[in-house]
Amino acid sequence: MSTSIQCGPDQSFKIATLLSALSPRSFEFLDLFAVHFLLSVPADEGSLAHRRHVPPRLIAPESLTDHLDLDRIFGRKMPLHIDLGCGDGSFLCALAQRMPDKNFLGIERLLNRVRTSARKAAGLENVRLLRMESFYAVRYLLPAESVERFYLLFPDPWPKRRHHRRRIVTPDFLSSIHAALQKGGSIYVATDDVDYFGIIKEVAESERGFAISDGDVDLPLSRFGLIFRQKGASIHWLELRKISPVK
Ligand SMILES: C[S@@+](CC[C@H](N)C(=O)[O-])C[C@H]1O[C@@H](n2cnc3c(N)ncnc32)[C@H](O)[C@@H]1O
Fold it and tell me: What is the CATH number of domain 23-242?
C-alpha cells in the first residue's frame, strides 16, 4: 500500500511505513478507530502560533512510530502527568500551575480545543500539547514507564449500545496505560455516566496489575466537571495504581 496521509503542509507519512511497524494486533485497533485513528499533526502550528500570538506549546512529533523525546520536548527532566482528552485545557493548566515541578502534557484530538488549551498554557513553562488520538499516543509514542500520572476526565461515554465499541477504556487501552506508567504511578478516571463507570471498573478489575480505589481526589475542576457539578450530577471517580511490572 502506498497511499500518503497528509499531516499538514510540511509533513506527510507513508502509510506503508507506519503499518509495517505495527503488530498484527494493532490492525484490530486500526479497524476500531478507522475514522479517527490518525489526525493531522499541526506541523505549521509554530508559525501560525506566532501570527496569533500563541507561544509554541504545541508539539509536532517528528515520527509516528518513535517514542517522544520527552526531555527535549520539555527542556528538563521532571515527573510527567498527562491529561487524556484535555478539552479546553482548564484542568491541565490549573494543575500545572499548582505543581510547577511536574511536566504536563495535554492530548486532545480536536484542533480548536488544542488551540484553546495552547492559549491557556501560554504563560506556563511546564505544559505541552499534542493533537493526537489518545490511545495511539499512549500505545506508540510514550516510552515505557515514563508517566507518573494520567488523568482521563469525562471520556466520551457513547451511551448508545451500537456506539459502545468507540469507548476508549478497553483491556488494550488499560494495558497500554500500565506499560507507560512508572511503578506506583496511577490513572485517575472521572465520569458522570454510571453505566460507563461500571464497565470501566469491570475492565480495571480484569486487568491484573492495578490496585483500584475510589480516587479520593483534591483536583481542580475541569470544564466538564464544572458543567456536571452545576447540573447537580454525581461524579464517579476511580484511581488505578500500578502495582506490578508490565505483563
Ligand atoms: C467530554 S470532553 C471532556 C474534556 C475534559 N477532559 C474535561 O473534563 O473538561 C471529552 C474530550 O475528549 C476528547 N477526546 C475524546 N476521545 C478522544 C481520543 N480518543 N483522543 C483524544 N481526545 C479525545 C474530546 O475531543 C473532548 O475534548
Answer: 3.40.50.150
